[in-house]
Design goal:
Strand content of chain B: 15-25%
Number of strands of chain A: 2
CATH topology of the largest domain in chain B: Beta-lactamase
CATH architecture of the largest domain in chain B: 3-Layer(aba) Sandwich
Strand content of chain A: under 5%
Number of domains of chain A: 1
Number of helices of chain A: 14
Radius of gyration of chain B: 41 Å
Order of helices and strands of chain A: HHHHEEHHHHHHHHHH
Distance between the termini of chain A: 32 Å
Oligomer: heterodimer
Largest sheet of chain A: 2 strands, antiparallel
Number of domains of chain B: 2
Structural class of chain B: alpha+beta
Structural class of chain A: mainly alpha
CATH class of the largest domain in chain B: Alpha Beta
Helix content of chain A: 55-70%
Amino acid sequence: MMIPRTDDSLLGRWWWTVDRQLLVAVAVLAGFGTLLTMSASPAVAERIGTNTYHFVYRQFAFLGLAAVLMFAVSMLPQTVLRQLCWPVLIVSVTLLAATLVIAPEIKGARRWIPVAGLSFQASEFVKPAFAVVSAWLLAGEDPKALVHGRLLCAAMFAGIIALVAAQPDIGMTLVLLAVWFTQFYLSGLHIFWVFVLLGLGGGGALLAYLVFPHVNIRINSFLNPAHGDHYQVDRAMDAFANGGIFGSGPGEGIVKQRLPDAHSDFIFAVAGEEFGLALCLFIVMLFAFVMYRGYAWAIREQSMFAMLAVVGILVQIGIQALIHMGVTLALLPSTGMTLPFISYGGSSTMATALGLGAVLALTRRGYSWGMER
Amino acid sequence: MTGFGNLARRGAIRAAGKYRRDFDEKIARNVARGRSRLRVTAYLFTAAFVLVSARLVDLTILKAQPSHANIRATVSQPQSDRADVVDRNGVLLATSLSTASLYVNPQEVFDVDKAVEKLTHVLPELDREGLRRKMIGDHRFAWIARNLTPRQQHAINDLGLPGFGFRHEDRRVYPLARLFAHVVGYTDIDNRGLAGIEKYFDDRLRLPMVHPAEPFSVSLDGRFQHVLHEELTAGMDGFHAKAAVGVVLDATSGELRAMVSLPDFDPNHIRPEDDHARFNRATQGVYEMGSTFKLFTAAMALDGGVVSPNGGYDASEPIQLARHTIRDYHGKARWLSVPEIVMFSSNIGAAKMAQAVGTDEQRKFLERLGLLGRTRIELVEAARPIIPSPWREINTMTIGFGHGLAVTPLQLTSAVAAIANGGIYYPPSILPRPRQTQGVRVVSSSTSSELRKLMRLTVAHGTGGRADVEGYRVGGKTGTAEKVVRGGYHRDALISSFVAVFPIDEPKFVVLVLFDEPRGPENKPRLAGGGWTAAPVAGKIIARLGPLAGIAPRAAEPVPLPASVKLDRESQTASLSQTAVARQVSAPATDRASASTTGTMEELLSQILGAVH
């Protein structure tokens, strides 16, 4: 892109201040995402009886919208961004609560609200919005704050977790827990409370295992591979074995034909079969690089809010990627988790764009908190 | 007031400033601690990414099963892993052809109905239900169809079915089809030898081969085999025989030149109904050979000095032994010389000759001729003879004219070769033999020479006249034996054979022709004997083999009759038309019914001996 440094236009200033390396890494990931969606989704689309390129067209549309959304959000000044996240959070939490009532049950869970032919997953938008809001509350940088930030944050978090777990969506619950705990930990929580929270988390996991039958089944079948249904995970193993180092070639995969969630929760297996170890390692490296860019910035950042918000969003993306990969590689019990930037899914793509836009906005050079003050 | 107000305002500002400073310091402390904690989370994430990468390597490389890509790679250079079999002239008898075999991985088939539909369209012989079962289940591999033609492979590729693939396999092919069916044998679909040379030399044929594989050469001669097969088939059809056996042996080395057993089968397409045909009658079938054994009796007696070539025995009266009678058919009813006994095939004379030699001597002699042990040939289909037990004097006498001992046609042929070739026994062999092979001397060369004369006389003036071929000096002996059917000898079910040696003055080859239950014209069983059926076929074979073997025909020369032979016109016609049938026993009426159609040796003996257990 030929933009002179002296370009003082909105775009010019954005280009020279935004984290371009991060942007390129994300663009490459999204590029692989479209490639893999084109490869994996036609089989799924034919299986469910829609147009062969149903998912491909929709994902292209989502990516276009997501790019616009990410660009728009990344232009926002930090104060505006911070203030904008409140209404987003409130709306999405309201919708989240509504899903329990109005959403149809799909595969044993109520997660999607049908909106004008599309299904909208409110919990996806809760993640980035809450990451920003809780960063603000935990940073405690507002001297005029009326309520104790941490207490408010903990209360809000408990409510959101309850809603998500009630859907039930264990994967999402885990991601939210990881994000919130990381933020809490980074914000300077006393080490005693850190261990208390870890203990609570462990207790909660045990409780989930005992209370939720589907969690119980998933964990049992993971711990005891001889029993239970691992159809998708087994197919994923086949896919990686079949792919080898360089894969069978784009579109040449066979296992995807038999993976119901090849385009979403198991897209990494399709990458493994068609592009092999080489591309899979490259994708892992790209995710690691995205996180590294955020961390490298956060470590120099003076503003607690910005640090917590950026790390919170990146942890959300990173944890999601790790869970997705972990499940397809049979390192973790199976749970539905999309691979950010890559998997098919309107809500997750838009929400990821929102989060990444926020990261780009917060990490823009010369636009740090201190200067604005 | 103003001052106080100023002071108060200044104090408030100072207080606010202090608060602000404290607040900033606290924030800065928190940020500093946050940074160190940031590192902790960074390490955790790094560890997680490393773990995922390690698992990726584990799954894609270390744990990967042989995938399709690998299979394709190994298939790209099809290589025969089984040696060809060639005859002594280098003609291919068995070779391997690289063909494609279709398999299915059910885990990759996602529309079984469609796949079944399309596949049965291309390969209509496939069973739909069986096919469906192969496509469903937890297994990852099942053969659908083996050894497809390139055209079939192409058609299946065009179907574009996922989950199906080809592996290249060697298919064993026998270019001469049924010609060498029994000798060369065949393999199963996985190229493991099941019969014949393929089975016996399985290890040798499947040796890791240098490329190109060195062919496995055998002593057989495709041209000889072809002649033998053709004439035997024609003979079997002409005489409506149930089965036929032909053997051509190199008389001077024991090398097998041709061996045919009819009915036969096509080793390229073995069908279930071939079961009966797969039996190699030349090495697995044991038969009471009848009069051809008189050659051994004569050789034994002459070699042992029991009788001189001019000596003889009184054959005027049938021999009464226990409740049985040994008699000649249309015999001369007079004293017969040794040549006459052989030429006219006198059972009485042969029995007396054997009796004179004695049981022990006979056993030892037959043992040396390889007639009492397992057939010596490089085939698993090698039978043991059926030997009388106990071997009494009556057995000695009946064996003297070829009854009571059942041997394989190949055993008979190699024994005759030993008698005729100067007296050396060579075990028969499928492998080429060096010229100077060590044999075992069984009779003196002078005895052998006497026997050759007798054989020539039999063809020139005796029962084997129809085997004579002008110029090739054929010698031989007929054999006709009644088969044991339902516990008794059956006068219309014969094993008719002829064993020929040519050229008789310097034996090169021994030819055996044997028919199982041939029928004479007009249902005259007497014309179904060896002299009428096997001898003319042997003659035709020799007439064709002679030129192939490079044996120069010689102008016909008269065969003078020895002084000891009285050949009246009447006896000549009688002997030619009758071919002494070795039905020596008038079976006593017995109420013992036997379920077996052929009868066991024990029953046979009880018939011969009249012993009622």
